[in-house]
Structure formats: C-alpha cells, structure tokens
Amino acid sequence: MNAERPRSVIVTGGTKGIGKGIAKGFADAGYAVLVVSRNAAEADAVAKELGGGATGFAADVADTDSTKAMAEAALERYGAIDVLCANAGIFPAVKLGDMTAADFDHVIGVNLKGTFLSVSAVLPAMKAAGKGRIVLTSSITGPITGFPGWAHYGASKAGQLGFMRTAAIELAPFAITVNAVMPGNIMTEGLDGMGQDYIDGMCASIPMRRLGVVADIAGAALYFASDAANYVTGQTIVVDGGQVLPEGAGAMAAMDG
Question: Is 31 noted as a catalytic residue in this protein?
C-alpha cells in the first residue's frame, strides 16, 4: 500500500452481483473504490454502503466520452488509477433464430467494446504512473462452455480474452498487467425467485455441489491486483467449483458411486 494514500480501483458494473462483490472485496482490503454504474443513485448508494474512500459515478461503458469522464473522475478524486476492474456486462437470453443484429450489437457493445473503452480510458493515467493493474470479468460461457440463448454473450466473453492477450503484450513495457477472472455459476440477486429446485439443478453439475459466492470472484480479482501477481499478465483464473471438469453426467454420477 502507498504510505501517502490508499490504492484506488475503478469497478464498472459495481452496484449488483459480482461487481458489487468485487467492490466490497477491494473496499475491505483498504482500497478507495470508484463504484461505476449507469445509474448514479445506485452507484452512490453502494459507495455509501461500502464507506471509507468509496464514491459513486455514473457512466456508460459503451460510450467513449463517458468512460473518459469516469477515468478523469477517479484521477481527480484519488490522485491515481491503480486498478481497473472491467466488470460491466449484460446477458439477455435470445436464441439464434430470434436474435437480431441489434441484439447482438448491444451485447458486444457493452461487454466487449465496453472493455476496450474502459481500458483505453485508464491508460494515460497508468502509463504516467509507470504501473497499473487491469482485471477483466470474463466467464466460462464462451471461452470454455456454451449455453443456449447466449451466443452473443459467449462471443463477447471469448472476445475479451483475445483482447486481453494482445493488450497484455502491448502494456507490459509500462508495468501494466492485464488478466481475467472467469466465473462459473455464482449466487447473486439475479437468482432470487428462481426457487430451490432451480438452484439444486445448477449445483448438480458442479463437483463442489454448490454455487460460488461473489467473494470468490473478488478474491481472484484481488490476487491479480496484489503484489503476489507482479509477474503475472495475460492469464486467466477459472472460479467455478470444478464445473468445467466432468466428462458429462456420467462423471458426476461416478463421484457418488
């Protein structure tokens, strides 16, 4: 930690689910957190909940000017941008027969273009400082697995990893690392109301027999931001309780045999 100021982090999509969990994890670790959401009131409310040096900011990650304003706000408030957690993402389910070009463009615009714009916005400050950490929230869906209705989402998440690898090479001379966390099924408020039978069905495909919690993803993001990851760039951590490991239902059944 810097003796003169707490380290700072921007968390996009920081008011709900995994993003809020990441914001809390960094706040608990002593970071000054810029909680970013398209909704200013929600961003301010989460920042107030986190306390410490957390503040809220309204930005649309799919918009160039908005992401630039986000970075400027972080720099003005905290004096530096030490970490960017590019977490903002959407996942509306639409199967290919019904998916329109507008549907596809919207998801790619937020999830993939939004990653590019968020990273681009923080680069001047990180390059000036001679260091920085960028952590992307990708997914197992797209890079490793598929799920009906999420072709556009899967494409965006796989695209993030392609972006990450080249960005990591380009930014390495500036001591800026770029890595990604790949969550599996995580228990968030998005599952509220789905019922226990639905959750039990999800757990049945996971060797650890439970869903992850947002703190699991925050822990991986904190690792990438920590001094322990000084020499780690262009890498991914899958946080899924082993979900991608079994060779089908037979392997899961054999666990109990």
Answer: no
